[in-house]
Specification:
Blueprint lengths: L1 H25 L12 H13 L3 H5 L3 H9 L6 H17 L5 H18 L5 H16 L2
Helix pairs in contact: 1-2, 1-5, 4-6, 5-6, 5-7, 6-7
């Protein structure tokens, strides 16, 4: 019982960290986003400091290695992985980062992992996958 409570707290903590990072990068209804020249670099720093996730290492992995890496990290359930994918995609869609295509490819990998792990079909996830693929194929 204590182990389960600990895992639930870790999952909630990672979710809160990623939501806070998204809030800082993209803003929201409560406050304006921080203006950043390099949002991808800011994301890398925040993930490393707050979630102990090395984005450079993650970006270099294929889908299977990414799944194994995230499985070994506490708090990365399907919902949090999907939130991370959305964050990477949002930065990739801006096109201002030199890493845009790399971020979009990794977002696709993360969405694929979510689809494999989650037994429920998600229309929103599939729409996001389609949107990323269309954006990447358009060469924008």
């Amino acid at each position: 019982m204590e182990q389960r409570d600990y895992l639930l707290r870790e999952i909630e903590k990672i979710g809160m960290v990623i939501r806070a990072i998204r809030q800082k990068l993209f803003g929201g209804s409560d406050e304006l986003a921080v203006t950043l020249d390099a949002p991808a670099e800011a994301l890398k720093e925040m993930l490393k400091e707050e979630a102990f996730l090395d984005l450079d290492e993650l970006l270099a992995m294929d889908t299977a290695a990414t799944d194994e890496y995230l499985s070994g990290m506490k708090g990365f359930n399907t919902e949090n992985i999907e939130l991370l994918a959305a964050t990477l995609a949002d930065i990739g869609f801006t096109g201002t980062s030199a890493d845009s295509s790399l971020l979009l490819r990794k977002a696709l990998h993360l969405y694929e992992i979510c689809s494999l792990r989650d037994r429920t079909y998600s229309f929103a996830r599939e729409a996001q996958i389609k949107r990323i693929r269309e954006f990447m194929n358009s060469g924008i």
